[in-house]
Design brief:
468 residues; alpha/beta
């Protein structure tokens, strides 16, 4: 090993992807140990740090070129010793000068005082905070003020962020490209207006409201006017994920949907108030770039009684997607759980219009009762379809499943909680070599023997507790 040229030894280390492998090879000889110390740019640590503050400093001193650090205390218990605290973040800030990407998960000992130490890390461009309950808006503000290169900010289950000055500062900074806010109770859709000019730089937005703690902030006339008058375009937005949001005309994120002109991926999950006009406008604005759309909509039984048909999605939005989205490759349609089918669900003809018109490679349907064996027959002419996922599609029988063997390019088939299919429906696949992947979950009439030999890779699970 001592005679290997530096480039060869360096290449060997670069080909190792896991921390276990890197650590193992660094123990084989002093030369590789030294090269690994120089080359290692990322580490992931957590409950094994004992004592936490001192051990992290030791790691940073060993790996002096660290750029990415993830500290996760998922599953931590008090008997495992003290977590990394504010002093530990201070040590990290001075021991890791190249730090650019930091993730803190379940770090319950860290407070705003600890985050202020990160303000001196001028190279930080990505910060992810996952369940850090002692962090408030003041701590976030100290980071965004000090880290002028911040391009990615993820806040997940940060329950005490109530002040929003940091959003206004990010709006003026105009460096943010990726923003994720999930289940942060005090942050509402309306607060995002504070981003101002940053909307024109944002490439990815994920906003999720805690479904168990959803409350509607009162929109006054001034707030509504601010959204409606916002002229900042969202031309760089390529991915938009909204979960449990409120989509109301002239309010909040409804105004953003009409300004995305280069969107490639959109996911709307249980967003109350989405209308045909929202999807139609999106299809017309982003039609040339849209590649993936996922819609999980409330069923009639989960909507407030006062809501009218005018806010329900219909085949009109699917027709708009078919007419305007020439590059659409992935469609996922889902309706929320309910004992009865939703009377507002898309018709079979509407679904087939978009699937057969666009170069569809992936189709996933969940709780879509209108899709049946006739639909499976129509998919035989879908020339590009490679993956089909059917969940709780109870109108599909063995006859329809057998037709899937005739799909020209089908390689991946996933079935979950489908009551009408059995081992007989999978017989055309057994030994055919057509499927690369077959996944069957919780289908009561399909047995482990029925899936054997039906694909190169098979996964099978049957837990029927969902039926009772």
């Amino acid at each position: 090993m001592d005679d290997l040229p530096d480039l060869v030894a360096w290449d060997i280390l670069e080909r190792l992807n896991t921390t276990v492998d890197k650590s193992a090879i660094s123990l084989t000889c002093k030369r590789l140990h030294k090269l690994d110390n120089v080359q290692r740019k990322s580490i992931r640590v957590g409950c094994g740090l004992r004592p936490a503050n001192e051990a992290l400093v030791s790691l940073c001193n060993r790996f002096q070129n660290l750029e990415k650090v993830e500290i996760s205390y998922s599953g931590w218990m008090s008997k495992l010793g003290k977590q990394l605290d504010d002093r530990g973040l201070y040590n990290l800030s001075i021991s890791c000068p190249r730090l650019a990407d930091l993730t803190l998960s379940y770090c319950t000992f860290i407070t705003d005082a600890g985050l202020t130490h990160l303000a001196s890390c001028s190279n930080i461009s990505a910060l992810k905070l996952v369940f850090t309950p002692r962090i408030s808006g003041c701590g976030i503000l100290s980071v965004v003020v000090g880290c002028k290169k911040l391009a990615l900010l993820h806040l997940i289950r940060c329950l005490n962020i109530t002040r929003m000055e940091w959003l206004e500062y990010l709006g003026k900074l105009e460096t943010l490209e990726d923003l994720c806010i999930k289940n942060c109770r005090a942050i509402g859709e309306g607060d995002l207006i504070r981003l101002g000019q940053t909307w024109q730089r944002l490439k990815r937005l994920q906003f999720e409201v805690d479904a168990n703690y959803r409350y509607m902030k009162v929109y006054d006339r001034l707030a509504v006017d601010q959204w409606q008058k916002q002229s900042v375009p969202c031309d760089k937005m390529t991915e938009l994920i909204l979960v449990n949001g409120i989509i109301s005309p002239g309010r909040g994120l409804a105004c953003v949907l009409g300004k995305c002109r280069n969107l490639e991926k959109i996911h709307l999950d249980m967003c109350v108030g989405v209308r045909d006009s929202d999807i139609i406008g999106l299809a017309r604005n982003s039609g040339s770039s849209l590649r993936s759309i996922s819609l999980r909509v409330p069923s009639d039984f989960s909507l407030p009684l006062l809501m009218t048909n005018s806010i329900r999605l219909t085949d009109k939005c699917l027709e708009a997607l078919a007419q305007n989205c020439s590059r659409l490759e992935s469609v996922r349609l889902s309706f929320s759980d309910g004992d009865f089918p939703s009377i507002s669900s898309f018709s079979l003809q509407g679904i087939l219009t978009v699937v057969l018109t666009c170069p569809m490679r992936e189709l996933a349907l969940d709780h879509v009762y209108s899709f049946d064996d006739v639909g499976m027959q129509a998919l035989c002419s879908a020339e590009h379809l490679e993956m089909v996922e059917l969940t709780r599609c109870q109108e599909i029988t063995d006859e329809g499943l057998e037709l899937a063997a005739k799909f020209p390019q089908l390689r991946v088939l996933k079935l979950s909680k489908c009551l009408g299919v059995s081992d007989d429906g999978l017989k055309p696949f057994v030994g055919s070599g057509k499927l690369k992947v077959l996944a069957v979950d919780d289908c009561p009439q399909i047995s482990h023997r029925g899936v054997e030999g039906a694909a190169d890779s098979v996964s099978f699970k049957r837990d029927l507790s969902w039926m009772y």
